[in-house]
Design goal:
Layout (H helix, E strand, L loop, with lengths): L19 H55 L6 H7 L8 E4 L3 E6 L8 E6 L6 H12 L10 E8 L5 E8 L6 H5 L6 H6 L4 H20 L3 E4 L8 E3 L5 E3 L6 E4 L6 H4 L18 H18 L3
Antiparallel strand pairs: 1-2, 2-3, 3-5, 4-5, 6-9, 7-8
Helix pairs in contact: 6-8
Main location: membrane
InterPro entries: Kinase-like_dom_sf, Plant_receptor-like_S/T_kinase, Prot_kinase_dom, Ser/Thr_kinase_AS
Protein name: Serine/threonine protein kinase
Amino acid sequence: MVGNSKLCGGEPKLKLRLCPIQASKQKQKTSHPRLTIIIVSVAAFCLLFSSFIIIFYLRRKSRTKSSSALSTISFFSKVSYKSLYQATSGFSPSMLTGSGSFGSVYKGIFGEDENPVAVKVLNLQQKGASKSFITECNALRNIRHRNLVKIFTCCSSMDYNNNDFKALVFEYMFNGSLEKWLHPMTVGNENQSIMSLTLIQRLNIAADVASAINYLHDHCDQSIIHCDLKPSNVLLDKEMIAHIGDFGLARLIANTDCFSESQTSTIGIKGTIGYAPPGKHSTLMKNIHTYGLNLMHALMKTN
């Protein structure tokens, strides 16, 4: 064995070093369990971490819907149910000024020296009423224009029977809707003359509505599509200035140079039959189409 430095293996008594093949096998035997433990540990950690992320995302998503609704409502200074109940004489039929698909509108008076307000009470039994309430709050919270109905406050509370109650409080329009002027309920010749629009008034109303649509489309942080523009949603104040109201079906669209197909294509039919545009019109074209119908209606309709 002298002079043979690379001699390896053999009897353990000879105390020769292990041959390279045997050493590598021995090393593999000891490294395999460690590698397995590391892989299993990393996989378990990744699985737990992924599960945590999924659970966190699902919880946050469910909370976002409710929190966004709450943040929208909290933007307005809320009024109590009791105040609205007293202002409308207990939501008396004598204070009822109109009704729509999602609720009724009452005339409200908070004090003898204060101007009246319009209180829109949502019928929460009607499907889509709650969504309409949030949509209208979102649409009106950051917009200001002389030809849009001004919102004062809102109420999201419980009534005296512990039922959910939601209402919006708007500026009161003394001359009612354009619909009532175009189709007055005549009671004799006297009422016929009172509810008559001159050509100049009709043109002014058309210009007011056009100004409001231009503002909603091109001068808001997010373009707003009304989706239900019709004479009953055009309201007239003391000076016969037109204001667009009822944004319960409105859509908010990102204000970009080029609208994507998903933003401009219709998703189901919204609005009133007879005023919705035929075919697959873009949402921006909906308002333009219905405005054209309203303009033609207002100019051609005679009392």
